[in-house]
Automatic annotation (TrEMBL):
One of its GO terms (cellular component) is cytoplasm. The keyword Lyase applies. It comes from the Bacteria. GO terms for molecular function: carboxy-lyase activity. It comes from Candidatus Sulfotelmatobacter kueseliae. Keywords: Decarboxylase, Lyase. InterPro entries: Aromatic_deC (IPR010977), PyrdxlP-dep_Trfase (IPR015424), PyrdxlP-dep_Trfase_small (IPR015422). This is Uncharacterized protein. The keyword Lyase applies.
Amino acid sequence: MELAQQFAGWVKADSRFELAAPVPLNLVCFRHKGGDEVNQGLMDRLNRSGDLYLTHTKLAGRTTLRFCAGQTNTEARHVERAWKRIQEEAAHVA
């Protein structure tokens, strides 16, 4: 849960993104403020890269990305690398 909270903090600190739901456990629901097409494109680019895999859902009718930091062997460096990749790809879709 600590890793999810760290990830959520990075989302909140980046003006391009917003949290879409509270983060009580290990699942972070977040979205790029650019809209549904931007979020779908961001997820598609990241998933195609093979560096990480995001899932999505609809919250309040808006496409929302989901990042889970709960695998047993996940370390802080993995979560940090995932966030850096999300930031890099966000620059290409917005």
